Amino acid sequence: MFKCKAAWNKLAPLARASSTLCRQAGKRAVLRHERTPQFVQPAHMSSGPSGGGGENTLYFVLVGATCLAGGAYAYSTLVGDRERYQQRITEIESRSSKPAAEPSTPAKTQPETAEPLPAAVAEIVPETPPVTQSASEPASAAASPAVEPTHAPYLLIGGGTASFAAARSIRARDPGARVLIVTEEDDLPYMRPPLSKELWFSDDPTVTETLRFKQWNGKERSIYFQPPSFYVSPTELESVENGGVAVLTGRKVMHMDVRGNKVKLSDGTEISYDKCLIATGGIPRNLQVIERAGDEVMKRTTLFRKIEDFKALEKVSRELKSITIIGGGFLGSELACALGRRSADLGLEVVQMFPEKGNMGKVLPEYLSNWTTDKVKKEGVKVLTEAVVKNVTYKEGKVEIKLKDGRVVKTDHVVAAVGLEPSVELAKSAGLEIDSDFGGFRVNAELQARSNIWVAGDAACFYDIKLGRRRVEHHDHAVVSGRLAGENMTGARKPYWHQSMFWSDLGPDVGYEAIGIVDSSLPTVGVFAKATAKDTPKAATEQSGTGIRSESETEAVAGSVAVGKAAPTPPPQQKEDYGKGVIFYLRDKVVVGIVLWNVFNRMPIARKIIKDGEEHADLNEVAKLFNIHEE
Amino acid sequence: MSYCKQEGKDQIIFVTKEDHEAPSNAELVEDDPNDPYEDHGLILPNGDINWNCPCLGGMASGPCGQQFKDAFSCFHNSKEEVKGSECIDFFRGMQECMQKYPELYPQEDDNESAPSGEAEAEAVLPADSTSSDSVSASVPTSEEVASGTESPATS
To answer: What are the boundaries of the region Disordered (chain A) (predicted)?
Structure first.
């Protein structure tokens, strides 16, 4: 089959050319023999049939020669190809037998989660002769890293939260499913929120190695969704009895052939699939002024997203004296608070700058954003609002940031938290649509891009039946959409319906959960209770002794952690202290977004109100449903 | 005493406890229990088990997922007086499988997995709950097991 196809591909241009030639020759022959079509005027040929006889022969000879030449070329090409193919196979075989020759150091010592998966799993899973269909014969001993499955019934591109949620969903619904996750990272799937929150609050000095954090309920867990033993080795995926989930790390999908239902990886391997999920997430944006600033500045800049970024920044926070965070959204503010909290102990200066008027300026209404900024400042952060960076240079051992209004900040290290660029490189080869408004792959309400292709997580621009087309970059959305994609990949045919939520904690005094479209440009109605000292995340957790965080979909959600050093909560002020309340975001008089400000365990009510999509005349009445005065 | 103010397009209302004492007159739309789009709790409207319920954690999807599903289905469909008494073999199979993956399924010292599996199954069947939120909030035992699968030893 392959041979025929390859042969055809090679010879197609030739065939086309020769067929054109034949057709043209045929046409002329028809005219000569006067089998003129009815509606054509009989052309007055300069040469009659008899005169054309000699020319006919010439044409036949020409065509014949062409065909012969074509045939000869085809033959030589095929032979050459076959030879090259054989060479490649022998090369692969020799390559795969080399690693087997090395005494297989099965990672009997510390299987770190960072290590390539086959090595770690080989120790645990009993050795079975791998039944692979790839051309190279693996040595039957150690699982050689070069051997991969060539077909995956469920192929998930990307190894993040959405992908893992989908894998779990597929396994739950399709018994014995074989799921292959391909990720360019070296890590197994992990959750991202603790990287900018809980991990920084940990008392454990080895936290950068263990990557464990304490949840709201006091229990410790790793940021990895599952330990390596949960996963099946890629080489065994096709043979293991009840199926499983395998992760191929360090491999990027470079090309997607939608017609042929297969992808090509960065190492040249091809994997075909039945159903495919694209969950490629995104990469952090950078400021142009930093990119243009040269190597010395780039060396001292962190684009925060992955585990390695967390490790690097943690090291920087201990070694350097000043860190500046550019960006006032979720990531920037959370990192600023996390670092700010350490600033006193470490003798570290933490600066945060952004163009808006206050922290979370694009999310919270102005009065609340200003209030939040004050809180962030109390965490030890030097906040510069309305700060637009003009240029960045490296001078005298310091990174110098010049703002458009003339202010200058000299710092040791920069963290750029200015947004996420969705990873849509596969759109070109796959022929998928990219959304021009929100970025990301454009998919329908069921997260489907094309027949066997779904997209979930940060990279998906989907149609939300209630709220319209959008793209959401939050953890719970990755879980919800990944789960939905997994369900739809197993035939559920359900649209996006269960609204995902998000949350943020900025220090012990400010914690909020939100749902829907929370955009500060929308008109808002905020209903606040007169605050008491009991109304903070810290207090709420301590008092009830249980979790206050709304349950995120699949995983236990990490909430704020009350760490020893927090100052005693100041007594509530009399005037305008936005201690706790509910803020409604309206679009055409319908509530499309809700923020629960220091009010917890009420997400189901908020979800219901958004789902109803009703116009409520008096939002104070709606606010009553939340019982904000109670715990 | 509550008061209200307007800052541009944003309205702010401060309310006291008394203000909110009267029950709300906001109208909410009646939920359709058979809504095909809606997520369901542990038990689907037709009586089947929703293996994709977040409350189960990774139990149905891990390496011992099949054994778990067999055991739990047997228990769920059991009509014996002592519910699940005929399912011992399935639970044993599940326990044997789980013992192979101590990292994923940390073994409790005191209880055997079989009875605790059944106890968990009982606690997990608040029959008519269709809201996944309430199920996950109100089921401590299954949550234990579920989060047990998610709190692996350091690798």
So the answer is: 91-116
> Range of A383's domain?
285-420
Are residues A625 and B24, on separate chains, in Cβ contact within 8 Å?
yes
Same domain assignment for residues A486 and A522: no
CB < 8 Å to A497, chain B: 37-39
Chain A CB within 8 Å of residue B69 CB = yes
Of A476, A498, A520, the residue that ends a domain is A498
**What average pLDDT does this structure show over A253-273?**
96
Among A375, A403, A420, give the residue marking a domain's end. A420
More reliable by pLDDT, A5 or A371:
A371
Distance from CA of A87 to the nearest CA of B (A): 40
- The closest CB to that of A210, out of B17, B131, B154, belongs to B154
As for how many domains chain A has, the answer is: 3
Residues in chain B, overall count: 155
State the best of B27, B28, B67, B147 to mutate against chain A, taking most chain A CBs within 10 Å. B28
Of A169, A497, A601, the CB nearest to B37: A497
Q: Note whether B1 contacts A: Cβ–Cβ < 8 A.
A: no
- Would the pTM count as exceeding 0.90? no
pLDDT tens for A208-242 read 999 999 887 888 999 999 999 999 999 999 999 88
CATH number at residue A521: 3.30.390.30
d(CA A358, CA A372): 8
- B58 or A40, which is more confident: B58
Q: How far apart are CA A187 and CA B103, in angstroms?
A: 18
Same domain, A249 and A290: no
Percent residues over pLDDT 70 in chain A: 70
Residue type at position A357: K
A484 within some domain? yes
Q: Is residue A403 domain-shared with residue A318, that is, in the same domain?
A: yes
Judge: B23–A624 Cβ closer than 8 Å, yes or no. yes
Taking 60 as the threshold, does the pLDDT of residue A607 lie above it?
Answer: yes
A534 and A612 belong to one structural domain? yes
State phi, psi for B28 to the nearest 5 degrees.
Answer: -110, 150
Same domain, A293 and A393: yes
Amino acid symbol at A217: N
- Break chain A down into helix, strand, coil percent, rounded to 5: 35, 20, 45
Question: Is residue A576 over pLDDT 90?
Answer: no
- Determine whether the interchain pair B61/A171 forms a contact, defined as Cβ–Cβ distance below 8 Å: yes
Structural contact between residues A557 and A480, judged by C-beta atoms closer than 8 angstroms: no
Report how far residue A352's alpha carbon sits from residue A433's, in angstroms, rounded to the nearest whole number.
37
Q: Give yes or no: residues A290 and A396 share one domain.
A: yes
In a shared domain, residues A427 and A536: no
HSE (side-chain half, CA atoms, 13 Å) at A430: 28
**Predicted pLDDT at A202:** 87
What is the ipTM for the molecules in this complex? 0.72
Could you give the domains of chain B?
42-106 (1.10.287.2900)
Q: Please tell me whether residue A127 adopts helix, strand or coil conformation.
A: coil
Whether residue A355 lies inside any domain: the answer is: yes
DSSP A49-67: HHHHHHHHHHHHHHHHHHH
Q: CB contact, 8 Å: B127 with chain A?
A: no
Q: Decide if A49 is inside a domain.
A: no
A411 and A457: one domain?
no
Task: Kindly report the nearest CA distance between residue B65 and chain A, in angstroms.
Answer: 8
Report how far residue A423's alpha carbon sits from residue A417's, in angstroms, rounded to the nearest whole number: 17
For residue A295, the domain's CATH number is 3.50.50.60
Distance CA B101, CA B112 (A): 16
Mean pLDDT (chain A, rounded): 81
